[in-house]
């Protein structure tokens, strides 16, 4: 038996080696009667890599997952650094629009349509009728042309005669209104005093009338076949 504090002898060392060798042989050779279960137990004790206690596939999966997480974290850190170096700024956008903004936009659209409609109407050419143009605007300072009335030579003869008769009738009546019967002298040859001058039957008065008859207080005057009566005291 080996004592602490003293060096082992050669016999004691040989005995120790033999004991270790016997233990290893017993571990490699399962006891009789154990069969496959004994071999499985021996395999577990010997450190068989296929035993379920070790789970080498799970360990490999955890290592791969840790590697992926590490790579992704590194990529995110690199992207952030690149964004900060590039001068990018994150701005908060206000998406809270006022409720009345839609009504104001509709009103602006209506006003725009009204203005555009007015512009389209102003582009229409306005033609001034020719008869409303009084003078040529490019001839300023000139006297307006005098309108000369040209007699219409296409009048019919009947129209000309009618106008002549109307003019004659106006002259006759104007002359008659100027005459005054002053007095009448009865007798074999009656005499009528008209506008201070004596006249007998058949005489011409004022180059217009012919005395056809002389009565007690009136005289019949003929002008172009029409008889006019001039009485004493008539005005």
Task: Chart the SSEs and their pairings.
Layout: H1 10-28, H2 35-45, H3 56-85, H4 101-122, H5 157-178, E1 181-185, E2 191-194, E3 197-199, E4 204-205, E5 209-214, E6 218-223, E7 226-231
Antiparallel strand pairs: 1-2, 2-3, 4-5, 5-6, 6-7
The geometry reads as rod-shaped
Oligomer: single chain
* Weakly predicted, low-confidence segments: 1-9, 24-52
Distance between the termini: 198 Å
Structural class: alpha+beta
- Strand portion: 5-15%
State the name of the first-level CATH class of the domain at 166-231: Mainly Beta
**Biggest sheet statistics:** 4 strands, antiparallel
Please count the beta strands (DSSP E, at least 2 residues each).
Answer: 7
Q: What's the architecture of the domain at 166-231, going by CATH? A: Roll
Short description:
With 235 residues, the chain is an alpha+beta fold. The chain contains five helices and seven strands, in the order αααααβββββββ.
Structural notes for this entry:
Helix content is 44%, strand content 14%. By secondary structure, the protein is an alpha+beta fold. Among the domains are: 38 residues, no CATH class; 33 residues; 66 residues, SH3 type barrels. The strands form 2 sheets. The protein has a 4-stranded antiparallel sheet, with no helix packed on it. The protein has a 3-stranded antiparallel sheet with strand order 1-2-3, with no helix packed on it. The N terminus is likely disordered.
Features:
alpha+beta; SH3 type barrels; 5 helices; rod-shaped; disordered N terminus
């Amino acid at each position: 038996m080996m004592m602490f504090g003293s060096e082992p002898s050669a016999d004691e060392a040989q005995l120790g080696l033999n004991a270790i060798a016997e233990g290893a042989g017993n571990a490699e050779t399962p006891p009789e009667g154990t069969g496959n279960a004994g071999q499985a137990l021996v395999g577990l004790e010997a450190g068989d890599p296929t035993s379920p206690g070790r789970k080498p596939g799970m360990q490999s999966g955890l290592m791969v997952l840790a590697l992926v997480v590490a790579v992704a974290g590194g990529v995110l850190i690199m992207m952030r650094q690149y964004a900060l170096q590039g001068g990018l700024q994150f701005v908060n956008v206000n998406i809270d629009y006022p409720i009345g903004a839609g009504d104001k936009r509709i009103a602006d659209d209506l006003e725009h349509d009204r203005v555009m409609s007015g512009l389209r109407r102003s582009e229409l050419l306005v033609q001034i009728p020719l008869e409303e143009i009084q003078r040529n605007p490019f001839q300023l300072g000139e006297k307006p042309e005098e309108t000369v009335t040209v007699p219409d030579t296409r009048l019919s003869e009947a129209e000309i005669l009618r106008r002549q008769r109307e003019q004659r009738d106006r002259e006759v009546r104007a002359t008659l209104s100027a005459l005054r019967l002053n007095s009448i002298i009865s007798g074999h040859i009656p005499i009528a005093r008209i506008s201070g001058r004596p006249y007998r039957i058949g005489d011409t008065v004022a180059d217009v009338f012919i005395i056809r008859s002389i009565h007690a207080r009136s005289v019949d005057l003929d002008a172009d076949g029409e008889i006019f009566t001039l009485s004493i005291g008539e005005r």
